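Sample A.
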Amino acid sequence: MINHAPAQQAPWLRWAVERPTAIALKVAQHTYTWQAVAEKVAAIAAALQLQGIADDDVVTLVGKNHPDAVWLFLARLHVGALSALLPPQPIAMLQRKLETIYRPEQTMWLFCADPSEAAALQTQLPDCRMVGRIVDCQPATGVVKPANYHPEQLSSLIFTSGSTGDAKAVAHTSRQHFASAQGLLSQFHFTVSDTWLLSLPVYHVSGLSIIYRWLQAGACLRIGRIEDGEMTDVTHASLVPTQLQRLLDQSIPHVLTHVLLGGSYIPPELARRAAALGIETWLGYGMTEAASTVTAKRVDGRESCGSVLPLRQVKIDHDRIYISGDTLAGGYYRQGTLTPLCDDSGWFDSKDMGYWHEQELHITGRVDNLFISGGENIHCEEIEAVLVRHPQVDIAVVVPVADATYGARPVAVIGCEPGWQSMSADLREWLEGRLETFKWPDGYYQLPEHFYTKGHTQGIKISRAAVKTWLSAEIKGCRDPDKQL
């Protein structure tokens, strides 16, 4: 829908006025000032408009992190159109998501930074219109036209991870994303003199939120990867514990001061090592619907997710966590229509379970990950939390499997280095004294490599539904779980 309200100053244009010569963006060996960012974004926006993209269109960006995707996201904000952000995926899955985004009569705008992938998509999806290589256009120096920027207008569509198998398109405005950034940065300090590494994919809210924190702070954004040695000027990063562990073990040159950790259990010793080097390590609790982080704290060895950040509210009713506040999405998007997230009182049911202790939030698990075994309640996450503390376990996913005697029993799928032949015995020994015996998994399987490398190394949670489907096939094959390790 076209927004007829007066446009507001886009955040990159604000910084181009206030800090025109400050370095805003770093891509490999190239640097851009805020003035250069504003000029390039305006030039790309003009090229988008020449191709026919208007402020009532949706532009779908498909692909992994690439500088072109960041430029296009900003240019799309400049035009006033809506961005849908999707990872590379099989064509059938992509088609289903496009059917969620676009009405039958609507132009399906598609952008892919990789030329060969773009050509393949054009062949496989002939009804789509591909956005051309407008990111190479040269801006007219000093010429920056006003942006058609409306912070209250829908800005992004991000599909939920689908951990339950039911992915939905979550719709946020820029104002909601900026509320998320403001609340976090009030405690997790990120200033104009700092640089944040954009290493997480922007098709996940954890990656997109970095862009909004950058725009909120007027700081510098580095697009790159730790593996490429892009750390020598990076002060802030969003990492998983194994990435930070590797960075410290390999003595990779860096100037890190703040790391936001996610993805799995954080060993206290890792936080202490980082602190000794002047690095603050933080953790939090969040979700796509809440534009990333809801609670946060500095890692202190206590098993909580921290306190509620500004501009959010959290309540617990019958052990169930409900969220409200300025960061909540406008709704689930389908072909231009929003289905509200919240109840009539403005509360969103996270379907997470937890409790308060000393004003900090503790998560006990998901409502849909609770099952009954022999009359006893078992939380998958409780078992996973114990398993992942074993020094050789990187990931643990517990799945309930039908059992003739008990109704259901837990089975664990473990992400670890290959070749750990005694894992089953070692983990049973590890659970002794740490977990009631009726909660011990009946079997252990090794997590396939495609789950392990594609998800966990980027800090993105693994699809529990996909793991369950894979495990079901393994069990039907009558394979002995103890031989999987």
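Sample B, a different protein:
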Amino acid sequence: MSRFRHEHSLVLTDDADVAALVAHARSSGWTKTTDLPYGHYDVTQLGWQVSGETFVLYGESHGIGCRFVTVTGDEAGSVEATVAEVIGTVGTVTEEEMLVVLLADPMPPAREIIRSLHRVTAAHFMRRIKRRPPEPGDPRYVRAVTRLMNHPDRSVRRSLIIQIADLIAVRPDLAEPVLARRKAEKELVELMEVFAEIAAAQASPHSGPGA
């Protein structure tokens, strides 16, 4: 569980200039706390202490090809101000923009949908790896998952199942619309069985934070 009371994650646009964030940190007097280069199982990380108990962490997940910035702290005002600084320095993708793609009618190209699914995973990356407790989220995600599990392109369904398998630790409500298609899914049978095992383990009273 986070030792901070407030946490806000931002997903960066594909063309966001991380050098601009590094330069902003330097000119603003942020103290560098983390510098973790890419490793086979690692996420590239750069971290700074802004002031007091407010911290900024830049991460790049090479597995999904997305970058994000997470701001944490005990003071809501300081966290919000720092989030505004980050948004003013590098390009970010809002949650609304991700949902627009996932719920668009007619559906956008498969590549765009998969990219948005990766971005949703990136937005929850730190919550997941730090084993934050589950929390309610925008109910439109359930509608998006239900809809995309019926997508005619198997690559979309495959990506969706994989990303939701990662997300259900912090969004357990997203498991049900995937499991509802378990019998109907004929092209990704093995993947669905693996997902069902992950969902069952996640639902176990012995899983989750503190287990």
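Observation for Sample B: Residues 95-203 form one domain.
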